[in-house]
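Worked example 3 (structure in, sequence out).
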């Protein structure tokens, strides 16, 4: 099927940015990428907030790529969190700093031999020795391998250097001292000594000073996947995990360091709910929300298609069966709701459906498209909503409704009971108030609600084809471009809930 569609490989095989070998070929630079990346000679910390699947890891990888083209600064990625046997109370500032120091040592030590051990003093070599002894005395070979993979600038050098140490991991300290140019007598003199390395914060300063002596203008620490370990499934748990680091402004202001954090945007809501005196000072840390425009996402899809088809396919419209009035690029991006990952998953589902229907086809059929949308929307909705709310929404068979519709036409119970049920839906985020409507002349206006998510809306109307759903339930605001999910086949005009313009 792929060959018949002009592809050498499946453009939608990989969902996670960290697994995409060819990401550079179709990465779309967000408007503030240069601000996040910054200037290595004048390092500044930055926090990027985005939804899950919103492109945080892709942005992080773009910085990793940039670091691999430069010898001027050291870059490590901190996204592999050792949490086995731990609780959130164990995740302290020291926990984060010790993990970061370990990565920095793995990235720094190979450069002592490569750049020249003469550039750092004997005292600093000894400090490095004791730091390695402290941090690597109980590391196993698997942990070491993972840590080496986290070194992004000079990463190949780090791999080659650490792979040379064939000695058991627990004995690497002596091997490291030898590469530092210390004699056997000097090594024997310090082997069993102990020194006070200071606090992890002090050690960060020491590492930075040694890195500077080796010629590095700065150190970039990229922090990602905070919400993807066993302690951090919910937003408030993700916040609690990273809070010790975020709250310590002194760390973000350490000389020579740039911390780049890529965090779940739901953390922002947690921060705003806190008392002012307990709140993280986001005004003191540069931060932005990562938001993609539909135009950028369509370009992303196009570049991905081109990369995997030797520049032959640039649009889904070239390979999807055409339907009058339907722009498949626009529709797929709309269903992505701002998330590159959603777009990839939807297209992956459609491709797999086509493979099941007819793997020899040279076009993605309407049958595969409709089945792909249906499966994607169902799986997504099941993943974000409790089963009882899904069943209640399916029973409404509407994407917008006034309160009295829920009480009189759907559940046939009291207005107060309807208000209570609607509040549950509001709290889940699946609907929002979109205005008020006059149900009966002379009565007070009734609150009017709408489904917020086009994916869930399509699941409510799983019996409709994609083109029927778009025709009957979806418009784009003529003024601001907001996606308006409404019962357009039942009513001619609705006011946009964003700009208040009548459509």
């Amino acid at each position: 099927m792929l060959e018949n569609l002009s592809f050498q490989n499946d453009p939608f095989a990989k969902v996670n940015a960290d697994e995409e070998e060819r990401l550079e070929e179709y990465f779309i630079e967000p408007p503030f990428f240069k601000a996040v990346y910054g200037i290595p000679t004048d390092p500044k910390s930055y926090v990027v907030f985005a939804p899950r699947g919103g492109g945080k890891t892709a942005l992080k990888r773009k910085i990793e790529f940039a670091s691999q083209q430069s010898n001027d600064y050291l870059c490590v990625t901190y996204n592999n969190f050792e949490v086995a046997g731990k609780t959130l109370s164990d995740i302290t500032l020291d926990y984060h700093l010790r993990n970061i120091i370990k990565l920095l040592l793995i990235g720094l030590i190979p450069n002592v031999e490569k750049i020249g051990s003469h550039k750092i003093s004997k005292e600093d070599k000894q400090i490095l020795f004791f730091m390695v002894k402290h941090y690597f005395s109980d590391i196993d070979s698997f942990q070491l391998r993972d840590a080496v993979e986290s070194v992004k600038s000079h990463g190949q050098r780090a791999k080659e250097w650490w792979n040379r140490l064939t000695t058991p991991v627990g004995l690497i300290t002596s091997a490291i001292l030898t590469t530092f140019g210390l004699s056997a007598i000097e090594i024997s003199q310090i082997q069993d000594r102990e020194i006070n390395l200071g606090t992890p914060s002090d050690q960060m300063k020491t590492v930075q000073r040694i890195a500077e002596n080796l010629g590095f203008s700065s150190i970039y620490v990229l922090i990602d996947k905070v919400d993807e370990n066993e302690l951090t499934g919910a937003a408030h748990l993700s916040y609690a995990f990273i809070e010790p680091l975020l709250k310590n402004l002194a760390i973000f202001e350490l000389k020579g360091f740039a911390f780049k954090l890529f965090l779940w945007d739901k953390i922002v809501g947690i921060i705003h709910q806190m008392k002012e005196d307990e709140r993280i000072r986001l005004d003191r840390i540069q931060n932005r929300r990562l938001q993609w425009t539909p135009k950028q996402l369509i370009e992303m899809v196009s570049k991905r298609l081109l990369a995997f088809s030797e520049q032959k396919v640039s649009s889904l419209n070239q390979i999807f069966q055409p339907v009058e009035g339907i722009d498949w690029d626009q529709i797929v991006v709309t269903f992505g709701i701002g998330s590159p990952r959603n777009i990839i998953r939807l297209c992956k589902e459609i491709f797999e459906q086509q493979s099941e229907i007819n793997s020899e086809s040279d076009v993605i059929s309407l049958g595969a498209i409709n089945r792909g949308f249906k499966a994607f929307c169902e799986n997504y909705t099941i993943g974000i909503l409790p089963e009882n709310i899904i069943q209640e929404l399916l029973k409404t068979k509407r994407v917008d409704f006034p309160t009295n519709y829920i009480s009189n036409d759907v559940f046939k119970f009291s207005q107060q009971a309807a208000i209570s049920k609607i509040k549950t839906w509001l709290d889940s985020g699946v609907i929002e108030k979109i205005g008020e409507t006059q149900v009966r002349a002379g009565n007070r206006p009734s609150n009017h609600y709408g489904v917020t998510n086009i994916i869930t809306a399509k699941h409510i109307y799983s019996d409709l084809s994609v083109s029927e759903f778009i025709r009957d339930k979806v418009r784009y605001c003529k003024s601001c471009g907001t996606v308006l999910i409404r019962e357009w086949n039942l009513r001619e005009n609705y006011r946009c809930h964003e700009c208040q313009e009548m459509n």
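Notes: The chain has three domains: 44-289, 294-383, 389-485. The two ends are 42 Å apart (CA to CA).
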